[in-house]
Amino acid sequence: MRARIAVIGVLRALSRDRNGLIGGTLVAILVGAVLLSLAWTPYDPTAVDPNSPWLLPFSDGHVLGTDMLGRDQFSLILVGSRETLVIALVSAGIAAALGVPLALAAALGPRRFAAGVVQLVDVAIAFPALLTAMILAAVFGGSVWTTASAIGVAFGVHLARIARAEIERVAGTDYVLAAAASGSSTGRTIRRHILPNIAPTLLVQLSLVMAVASLTEAALSYLGYGSPAPAVSWGRILHDQQPYISARPLLVVWPGLAVALTVLGFNLLGDALRDATDPRLRHGGSGAVAKADGERAVRAIRPPAAVAGALLEITDLTIRIAGRTVVDGVDLTLAPGERLGLIGESGSGKSLTALAVLGLLPEGAEATGSIRLDGAELLGRSERELARIRGDRVAMVFQEPLTALDPTMRVGRQIAEPLRLHRGMTRRRADEAAIELAARVGLPDPADLVRARPHQLSGGQRQRVGIAIALACRPALLIADEPTTALDVTVQRDILALLDEQAREQGTALLFITHDLAVVSSVSDRVAVLRGGRTVEQGPLETILHDPRAPYTRALLAAARATAFAPIEAPAEIPTDSVEAAS
Question: The ABC transmembrane type-1 domain covers which part of the protein (predicted)?
Fold first, then answer.
């Protein structure tokens, strides 16, 4: 049902695109010619009639005339379309089957293996498709499969190079990182997030493969390297008529026009399909679904149950990247239901510390020390073991809500994904739960909004979706990495209130990362200050604000005074006068 709806949506988008209409019509004519030739042709295309050579169009029932052997030109064009379509489809299939796995291996594989794949692709690109096809035809004889294989392999390596760059771009986006943080396996992330997002590029490239395959087949057959007689193709027709071009130019007009229109059709249809399959281009970034995000969630304070023992223990955490120490001996503890603010300037190691908890450090980073969740060591765990924890026991809200959401997926599907991964819910039940979660985080008209895509929502609504995804499985620990930085002040207040409310309702511990003292004072029980990858100071919020001991912490407070720092909105149990005193 969903596939049918998606196909209908693409067809509607194509019908509104002039290039899509023209390209689709030309390709439909090609397919129609192939189907018609299988059932009927006006004359036998291989039948020679010495009494009817060189007939002009519309003479004696021959729509396009006859050639020097009296063969009907229209019948030859119809039958020749078969080889063109077969070669185009087979070439595109081989190119995709070869190029996409090579691109995935080069972009996501181990470094040495990826480097080997890249070198292999670079060497293969040195051999032109036409030359490769000519060599294979000379060795194995011309045929549809020889031509299609040569074109498919040659363009498969070109596709691998282009797709690799796209995969690396998509793999570095926040929404792929967010999918991993939700517990998605590598294979699932590739299927659900990477391949759909590179599909527009693949469609354009494969349409080019089909266009060039049609042109290359005609060129090979014209040069005598195509399928031998009595096989009929448009290139073979051009080859046969070549000696008579000066005397009978119309003989090459019809097959030449067929090749040109086919190439044009594939190109136009590929461009239109790219636009039709990319929701950001199809919807034009309309905000029709979005409504004002000024509403605030009702604060329901429910103190978390007291639980003995630490939930998260980070001991002597050291992270090195390319031989440089970026986090140096960080120690943090977080009790169940506690709210810890992690504050520091850019480059202080805040985000890397959080990513280390989830096992999502960038490639090449080395972490030592200890990270224990409920007493269980996380450092050294396998990717499969960490995937079971991410999104379930530990979840994360990212800084930029637009880039943290997959632009090709409806937001309801993204909210439902952790529930299907970790709770084993059916799609229908997970979709229903997604609507409930959307309502819980204060999204307006949740039943309608879950069908929207990220670009159709306001910034505050997108961040609420991110919070719904993170809280879907009721994690024990929620990491919020500067979730209000990209939002305006009014929406910041609402998001902070929502995080505070949901964490209290679920008894979830909160690790809140920020560089803003006003924000940290609004959501934290304790504060840890980082600088240069080291823990400078940590303690209760009021102690840090009233009686900081580290010079760096005092400098932060002095800077806050200079910028007229005041809290956005402090929860009821944290007196605002404590913050004002620090000002």
Answer: 81-270
